[in-house]
Design brief:
By secondary structure, the chain is an alpha+beta fold. It is about 15% helix and about 30% strand. It has five helices and 19 strands. Helix 4 runs antiparallel to helix 5.
Length: about 280
């Protein structure tokens, strides 16, 4: 029986399912997990046509060489797909919930996608569309391959995976077993996944507070051991701007992140936003 793709309208996660069959027995693996909330009105799944009619894909260059793609109105977890332009081939990290044809054509004009990856399942979005259009190498950490039924992993990453000189995937775990961050050395940028949450944005888009979470919806903190591992990885990755699967922070530095980890390790780990030290520089 042929397969099709369905999107959970609550979280936006894409599933493979049997074409023509009602998904009455399909439980969304993301919504069913403690790190997300259950849909208040029960499961609802949309096919590609319904999603296409529901949202519009937007894009912009958020900083030179790095483009963001997202959907309006908000859909699912409302993620942003990042495109890093490089002379040796573009890298797409995280996925927008959906890519209309005009968005895919824009990515084509920007040079397509040579490498494709994501920090963890909350950042997958519609990676399957980018894979079908551009046929890139698709890299996922070994612990999160279990969540990839909607697309095909071509390279399984261990705890450190070099995409290209200066562009490396690093395993941090914590929030998800296979969560990774992507360090772009030449850009002094870190794509942090959900290892950090940005809080208290000002009118200029600058962040003034940070937090860490094991589970966001139920405010579950990380353990001290998980925070120590975050710190060991981050301290080797100099950066002075950061990206989650949702936001760009032009002022979050490595030193800001280390100060947060140190505060949480020394005290009682919490999910409460912590004021950012204004004099910390990466």
């Amino acid at each position: 029986m042929p397969l099709t793709r369905l999107s959970c309208t609550h979280c936006g996660f894409w599933h493979s399912w049997f074409e023509g069959k009602e998904p009455l027995t399909l439980n969304c693996v993301l919504c069913s997990d403690v790190r997300n909330a259950l849909p208040p009105d029960g499961w609802d799944y949309a096919d590609v046509g319904r999603v296409a009619r529901t949202v519009t894909t937007r894009w912009k260059e958020v900083t030179p060489g790095i483009w963001g793609f997202w959907c309006e109105p908000r859909y699912g977890l409302a993620g942003t797909g990042w495109l890093i332009r490089r002379d040796d081939g573009n890298v797409a990290f995280e996925g927008a919930p959906f890519y209309h044809d005009d968005a895919l054509e824009q990515i084509d004009r920007l040079g397509g996608v040579r490498l494709l990856s994501a920090s963890h399942p909350h950042g997958y979005g519609a990676l399957w569309q980018l894979q079908e259009r551009f046929h890139p190498e698709l890299v996922i950490h070994r612990e999160d391959v279990r969540y990839t039924k909607a697309f095909r992993v071509t390279t399984v990453a261990d705890d450190e995976h070099e995409f290209a000189p200066g562009l490396t995937l690093h395993h941090v775990g914590g929030h998800y077993e296979g969560q990774c961050v992507l360090h772009d050395g030449p850009q002094r940028a870190l794509f942090v996944g959900d290892s950090l949450k940005f809080d208290d944005f000002d009118a200029e888009g600058r962040v003034h507070a940070l937090s860490c979470h094991k589970g966001y919806h139920y405010h579950i903190p990380l353990s001290r051991g998980e925070l120590r591992h975050y710190r060991r990885v981050f301290e080797r990755l100099p950066f002075d701007r950061a990206f989650t699967p949702f936001e760009f922070a032009p002022n979050v530095t490595c030193a800001n992140a280390l100060a947060l980890f140190d505060r949480l390790i020394a005290g009682t780990p919490t999910t409460r936003p912590q004021p950012m030290e204004s004099d910390a520089h990466g």
